[in-house]
Amino acid sequence: MSNILIAGGGAAGMAAAVFAAEKGCQVHLFEKNEKLGKKLFITGKGRCNFTNDCPEEDFFASVVSNPKFLYSSLYGFNCQASIAFFENLGVPVKVERGNRAFPASDHSSDIIRALERRLRELGVKISLNTEVREVFCREGRAAGLVLKDGTRIHGDAVLIAAGGLSYPSTGSTGDGYRWAQESGHSLQPLRPALVPLETEEAYIPRMQGLSLRNIEFTVKDGKKKIFSEFGELLFTHFGISGPLALSASSRIGKRLEERKLSAWINLKPALTPEQLDARLLREFEKSWNRQFKNILPELFPSKLAPVILELSGIPGELPVREVTREQRESFVRLSRAFPLTITGTRGYREAVVTQGGVSVKEINPATMESKILPGLYFAGEVLDLDALTGGFNLQIAWSTARAAAEAMAEHL
Q1: Contact criterion met (CB below 8 Å) for 78 and 49
Q2: Residue 286 dihedral angles phi and psi, to the nearest 5°
């Protein structure tokens, strides 16, 4: 019977342990926290958006780093297979807007308990509060793990599934990267991804708590457009958050390390400039004698209205009948390109995932085995793989875990 050692008891580690044990392997899972799935517990604000019920081509379009590497593992265990897997473990599933799949209860603990229950049924040995120090080799192969207390645990194969650097309070402190480097692997630069963005302008914190829906958010590096999507944005005391900000962070993070970036919000993307101007004129006609500042709440949320008035340069006390055509056209342009400057990200403590990691050029995409050290496998966030929000990152964990587990069971 093959003896498989897994370092990391998060999503990828637990799933790999289940898959390998189902293939008849003897599995020993090591987790330095006091319980399994600590980061999984807070995923999706505690609801656990565990996959996305979308076609494969949509999935790959949502992967930011190295989508082609995932072809083999995703086709081997796709999003629909993940849904079936958890339903078979007794977790009712629901699919919401954007094809996002959740446990029907909205409790991430259901996903964790289902995996733990299956691990017990399969006889997987679990060592909690057990910190791994390094991977050791013998005759050019990974041969086991050295624990923090110096204990050497021998295995026929070793899987590193220790996660990244995001949410370090859950134990994600980059251990897997260190083990990988010590084993001869190279890392792609690490940075927080799916993370809120910090902005420069003093007027942004004044709108703290305001959520904008159905807007278009665009980021440029000089004249080059590097991100533009429709969706939802949230103003905070430091800048912006919400789905659009998180998605943008994954696309612009590398550039942000070098310089500030200009961004714009189209507050009325459903209207052409001509249509928006006509809308303004209708408001003017209804309120011919009112002051300009008093009609803005008809067009924009109350927290936004005074800010956009200030940026417009139009005197708030000016009667709308005296607003010139040039002022009106300038206001339309401002409404379609509300400006802000992005200065950085909020860092790993608020990042959903880590971008960068173990270079996939050194990993077999079909088996997740190292090309440098036979017998050593990788799965999940420790690899240089990341995707947008919507369940895609957890699907990467399930798919790579499945590929690694099947390969370990078959090759051994």
Answers
A1: no
A2: -75, -25
